[in-house]
Amino acid sequence: MASLNENQKFWARVTELARQSIGKQAYDFFIEPAQLMSVEQDTANILLDSGMKKDYWKKQSDLITTAGFEVFGRMIDYELYANDELTELELHRLNNQSSIEEQPHSTAKPASPLVSGLNEKYNFENFVQGPGNRWTLAAAIAVADKPGDTYNPLFIYGGAGLGKTHLMHAIGNQILTDNPTARIKYVSSENFVNDYVNATRKNQMENFENTYRNLDLLLLDDVQFFSDKEGTKNEFFNTFNALYDKGSQIVLTSDRIPQELNNLEDRLVSRFSWGLTTDITAPDYETRMAILLFKSESSRLEFPSETLSYIAGQIDSNVRELEGALNRVEFVARANGIAVVDIETASQALRSLKNATQQSLSNLTIKKIQDEVANYYHISFSDLVGPKRPKEIAFPRQIAMYLVRELLGTSLPAIGTAFGGRDHTTVMYAYKQISDKMKNDMDVQKDIDSIKRKF
């Protein structure tokens, strides 16, 4: 561990170089408020007053590198933390790290600060329960109550914006409330891969293993994006086993069930299924209304029930889009000085939102939709548009026709032509079949949502 004097010299040199290379306003805003918490194992731990400043600091590696060689005579890397992204406990740990270093005669080696990644705003109290998430919510509460005991691992799957990540954070925050010393880490699969790659590159695998294999709770989000690199998957396999064997809780999320994670090997998929696998589906109308009522309570504007009902009827895909629609309506109302938001205002706001969505789909084609549907259901393009009619082909074909009509507004005859010269009545029937199923069949809703997110 670097001495206090060296750390002071290092940070003084960093700030001096910054003054020489950037303008005063940028220095006062980005550099001056930052604090050096420690320099440990060739890594400087820097605390920022806002997470929004991380992007700027990530571009200042030359300051750290230059000061590192001048003061320590070697390469110094750096990790960034932010006050507004840390829980009170994590900030306390970082401060303790700093205070230990300020004791010149102390020989105790402080533990590396563990940043849990938890977002305190997500808890069980503000998660709106509905038919599509009731059982998953119950499982999450059970896990938070007895981590490592009831369902381990807990595997949650479902489309984007349905509340999977909210529940993960809620589990972590509840466990941390019950046990403030619990070692918890929330991480996306992408960041897990990055942590592993960086540890390998810097020859710091021991630190990596100490961080991940000594957790009480690992929350790993979006495992469907796990790297195809064998080294990463091997390391996660070993991490999973180490945590499971010591009774630590593991919670995983994905957009599909474990058996459909094609880029993962069987031994991992098998372990994902050891505990409980549960899904979250799109919210029904009543749940959407409950979400809007809950969210609108914190607004300074008045939202009559008929306005919220209108919004709930327009957005039926996921919670994230629903909340975005409400924010958009509130923005338009404020911009026009409207205190009581009526349906006309909501319609105007959502019309703009719909136009933006249509613009984002401007490059979407019938062929792109056909290819994505064929890939999703593991059938060939020729089967999708060909004459075969078994259920495992006919159903994906109907899905594809529905999406072409829904997303592109293509005429029925044109859709029929694109699907092997079928009659427009066949397309009409397919569209009606899928539209009806969307109202009641959660599996169809999930499939449609998953495919849409690929565009």
Note down, in words, how this protein is organized.
With 455 residues, the chain is an alpha/beta fold. The chain has 4 domains: 4-101, GMP Synthetase, Chain A, domain 3 (2-Layer Sandwich); 134-279, Rossmann fold (3-Layer(aba) Sandwich), CATH 3.40.50; 285-360, Helicase, Ruva Protein, domain 3, CATH 1.10.8; 366-452, DnaA protein, C-terminal DNA-binding domain (Chromosomal Replication Initiator Protein Dnaa, Chain: A). 56% of the residues lie in helices and 10% in strands. It contains 21 helices and 8 strands. It has helices at 4-21, 24-31, 54-58, 61-71, 88-101, 134-145, 164-178, 189-201, 205-212, 230-245, 266-272, 285-296, 305-314, 319-335, 343-360, 366-376, 381-385, 391-408, 412-418, 424-440, 442-452; strands at residues 35-40, 43-48, 77-82, 154-158, 184-188, 217-221, 249-254, 276-280. The strands form 2 sheets. It has a 5-stranded parallel β-sheet with strand order 5-6-7-4-8, sandwiched between helices. Helix 1 crosses helix 4 (61-71) and helix 12 (285-296) packs across helix 13. The longest helix is centred in the N-terminal third of the chain and has 18 residues, at 4-21. The radius of gyration is 26 Å and the shape is globular. The two termini are 49 Å apart. Residues 97-113 have low confidence and may be disordered.
